[in-house]
Design a protein that fits this description.
The complex is a heterodimer of chains A (216) and B (466). Chain A has 216 residues and is mainly α. In chain A, helix 5 packs across helix 6. By secondary structure, chain B is mostly helical. Chain B has one domain: Formate dehydrogenase/DMSO reductase fold (Up-down Bundle), CATH 1.20.1630. The model of chain B has no long low-confidence stretch (mean pLDDT 91). Classes of the chains: A mainly alpha (216), B mainly alpha (466).
Chain lengths: 216, 466
Amino acid sequence: MAQIFHHSTNTFSKLSIFGAVFILALLLWLFGAFSRSSYATQAGVDREQPVPFSHAHHVGGIGIDCRYCHTSVETSAVAGIPPTKTCMNCHSQVWNSSPTLEPVRESFRSDRSIEWTRVHDLPDFAYFNHSIHLKKGMACEVCHGRVDKMPLMHQQASLQMEWCLDCHRNPEKYVRRREDVFKMGYEPPADQLAFGLHLVKEYKIQSRTSCSTCHR
Amino acid sequence: MEPDQTQIEPLTLGEQRRAELVGPGHSFATVTDKISSIVLTRKTTLGFLGAFTVAFGLAMMLFYTLAYVVVVGVGAFGVNVPVGWGFDIINFVWWIGIGHAGTLISAILLLLRQQWRTSINRFAEAMTLFAVACAALYPIMHTGRPWLAIYWLFPYPNTMGLWPQFRSPLIWDVFAVSTYATVSALFWFVGLIPDLATLRDRATARFARFAYGMLAMGWRGSAMHWHRYETASLLLAGLATPLVVSVHTIVSFDFAVSVLPGWHATIFPPYFVAGAIYSGFAMVMTLAIPLRVVYGLEDFITLRHLQNMAKIILATGLIVAYGYMMEAFTAWYSGNEYERFMILNRLKGPYAVMYWALIACNVIAPQILWFGKLRRNVALLFAMSLVVNVGMWLERYVIIVTSLHRDFLPSSWGLYSGSKWDWSMYIGTIGLFLTLLFLFIRFLPMISIFEMRTILPQAEVKEEGQ
């Protein structure tokens, strides 16, 4: 009677047993890598906007303070998107005939807001409040990155929960003096951890990690 | 190789014991023929097809229910405040418990060298696997979004930076049950390999030879193969032995670790384990009795087997009865008014009928097994095993529902009953279980061929090796 299997089956079956282990490990790794990739999180991806507003120019070049436009950042949950009037404070005088800025002037004339594309969009089930973070010495730069160097705005952090918790579990790693929270390009002191712990005590920062802190 | 009938030699003790486990006149060849023919040459009868169709129909009802629950949500089930745990956990515990007999037979009885386990261990292990598969459906479905269950249940470095609550028995459950399923599946498969090779060698159809050949993983029956097989099988038996006790202990922790009257009791782990083995053996008997009649296996699954199982059912039934007694005693002795209310409510409250039915099924009915004559009455044993299956389901229903439906404050009291979707899921899992069992009987040897050969009287080693 003829053999059912060719003798190479032995090699294939041994390979497939060992191969299965590696393929499984690879799949798990791929899953982990994909869910953290910028494809999944949109981190580092420049967003198209109706007007190519450059933070690099306005913050880095001219030196406008964050709060000039994001007026409610110290007092409310949301930082606030400036009304067209804020743009027109300057642009009624400078670049007032630039075709790039026509949508701004059009918005001003028609009293209809420019529809900006939201870059940092947390899921609706997560509660976030800007003002408390600033009060406790958490700087814009820590989450938003070097906005003064971004011609078009992009999200720097993954905005995933493990990223939130990284700081919520150990705030001393990132905290700075309240005077420095709007600074871009801040150099943390060499003894950041010790300094951070000191600030955590001084500002009475509580490491809030219970579910209902953010999922209310 | 007909045994020489003319030469009369007194049977040794070992041979006598063996003779009770296999009908007379069997040789190595007849055992192999008999068991492998059920798979390879026996015609698929109309009766088999009819029974399979019914089981498969019920399994389809299960899948319809699952789809409905996914689309509509877990609101389709009958649970609500204050009874937040209902059919899902009742049936989970029931099925997991049933699985325990298979593991006890294949692991503990193997280590204790109980030869009577041989003819029942294969299908009891299959029963374990299928029961665990049915059980696992409930916790997965009760999450409401089963496709997300993996990230709620298993610890892995997720993007939330979160781990499951390791102090909760529910996560211990995940580990206990997944370990149990893995070890049981491995044990079952390793035990099947020599028999799969037998089927590969005996099958004539090309596809059957290929399929059994793939599954037999190149088994040639060399001394080295047998040596490795024995080592692996003993190791797996060693691994599976603690699982017989640990899995249902952890299932009982789901209740015992909470602080609810009627659940928060130290007796729970041993009481649950005994109940699991009790219900498991009842299920083995429920399956064994029809199988031996339909497939003419009375020579292999003898009255001796049924009697032994009946004795285990009686013994574990008494432990379970002790558990019921202790629940009542502890409630009284604690002096705690909530505990006392709970037990009185069980005896006289809205679920009293179920409580007394469970006492009748689990405590009174098995007492017939004290009598040898009744233990040899196969029809009675079959009826009794069904009664125990029902009783053990009622036990879980009573434990879960009576403790929940009377909350600490009378303002939050309520009543519970399963919705039609609860019932269709429960009956559906029985259909799934039977479907898998029918497929198993049709395509795999339901009794271990090579192990049966080792318990034949002529396999007894009469002289010590030199």
